[in-house]
Design goal:
Elements (H helix, E strand, L loop, with lengths): L1 H20 L2 H4 L2 H26 L5 H16 L8 H17 L8 H26 L4 H26 L3 E3 L3 E5 H16 L9 H29 L14 H22 L2
Helix pairs in contact: 1-7, 3-4, 3-6, 4-6, 5-6, 6-7, 6-10, 7-8, 7-9, 7-10, 8-9, 9-10
Length: about 270
C-alpha cells in the first residue's frame, strides 16, 4: 500500500510541477482544461452516488451526473442567459427533481432522494466547477497551478509526515488515522507551496504564505468532510481508480473546498 501511495504521490507531484512550469496555455486551450475538470466531476459524482447506493440510499445517479456536467459546460462555453444563471439552474434542478417524484408509486423516501441528489450536484459539481472559473481570472493558469500546488502539497505533507511522526489523533470519530502532527505539517507544506508560486503571481512571499495557510486549512476541512461522508456510508475509499489512494473523490475532496474559496478571494484581490 505504501509503495502504491509513493508511486501515485510521485505522479501527482509531477503533475503539479508540470502545471507550474509548463506553458499549458500554449499547449492546451482553456476549453480542453475545462473538459478535463468536467470528466473529474462526472467520475466524482459517480463515486458519490455509488457510495450512497451502497448505504441503501436511493438516488437518481445518472440523472444527477447528467445534470452535474451541465454546470461546468455552461462555464466553459460561457452559456449564461441571465446574470444569476447558476442560481436559476439550481432552482430548475430542484423543481425537476420534485417533478420526477410524481412518477413514484410510493411517497416514502422522497425528501431523502431529492436531498441527496441535489447535495451531490452542489458538493461535487458546483464546487469543483470553480476550478474552471479560476482559469478565466487574470493570471488564470498561474492561479490554477497555485491552488493545485497549495492544496495538494498540503495533502501530501499531511499524509507522509502524519504517517511517520503522527501520535496524537485529530478527529478519530471522523478519520481514525489523521493526526495533529500531520495537520500541522500539511499547513506548513501548503504555505511553502504558496511561496513557490511567487515567480508567476504578483504577490509577496508573505501574502502567498498566508494564502497557502488559508488553502491548507480549508483543504483539510474538505478532506474531513469527505471522510465524514465515507464514515456514514461505511466505506474506506470512494473508489479504486487510483492505486493506493482510492477514488477520484478521495483526490479532489480538499479541492472541492479550496477552489470556491480561492476563487472568491482572488476575484476580489485582483480587481
Amino acid at each position: 500500500m505504501l509503495t502504491k501511495r509513493l508511486v501515485s504521490g510521485a505522479v501527482l507531484i509531477a503533475v503539479i510541477i508540470a502545471a507550474v512550469y509548463v506553458d499549458w496555455r500554449a499547449l492546451l486551450p482553456f476549453t480542453l482544461c475545462g473538459l478535463i475538470v468536467t470528466v473529474f466531476i462526472a467520475l466524482g459524482l459517480y463515486e458519490f452516488f455509488t457510495m450512497l447506493e451502497n448505504k441503501g440510499v436511493i438516488n437518481y445517479k445518472y440523472v444527477g451526473i447528467g445534470i452535474g456536467v451541465i454546470l461546468p459546460l455552461s462555464v466553459i462555453f460561457r452559456f449564461e442567459p441571465t446574470k444569476k444563471w447558476e442560481l436559476l439552474f439550481i432552482v430548475a434542478i430542484l423543481l425537476f427533481l420534485i417533478l420526477m417524484q410524481f412518477r413514484r408509486r410510493q411517497s416514502s423516501g422522497v425528501v431523502i432522494d431529492i436531498s441527496t441528489t441535489l447535495f451531490g450536484i452542489l458538493y461535487v459539481s458546483w464546487f469543483f466547477t470553480f476550478l474552471i472559473k479560476i482559469i478565466y481570472l487574470p493570471y488564470g493558469m498561474g492561479l490554477l497551478a497555485a491552488v493545485l500546488m497549495m492544496t495538494k502539497l498540503g495533502d501530501i505533507g499531511a499524509y507522509f509526515i502524519g504517517s511517520k511522526f503522527g501520535k496524537h489523533l485529530l478527529l478519530p470519530r471522523i478519520s481514525p488515522k489523521k493526526t495533529i502532527e500531520g495537520s500541522i505539517a500539511g499547513l506548513i507544506f501548503s504555505a511553502i507551496g504558496g511561496m513557490l508560486c511567487k515567480q508567476f503571481l504578483p504577490f509577496t512571499y508573505l501574502h502567498l504564505a498566508v494564502i497557502g495557510l488559508f488553502c491548507g486549512a480549508i483543504g483539510q476541512l474538505g478532506d474531513l468532510s469527505e471522510s465524514l461522508i465515507k464514515r456514514d456510508c461505511q466505506v474506506k475509499d470512494s473508489g479504486k481508480l487510483i492505486p493506493g489512494m482510492g477514488g477520484i473523490l478521495d483526490e479532489i475532496d480538499s479541492l472541492l473546498f479550496t477552489a470556491p474559496a480561492f476563487y472568491f478571494y482572488m476575484s476580489v484581490v485582483l480587481k
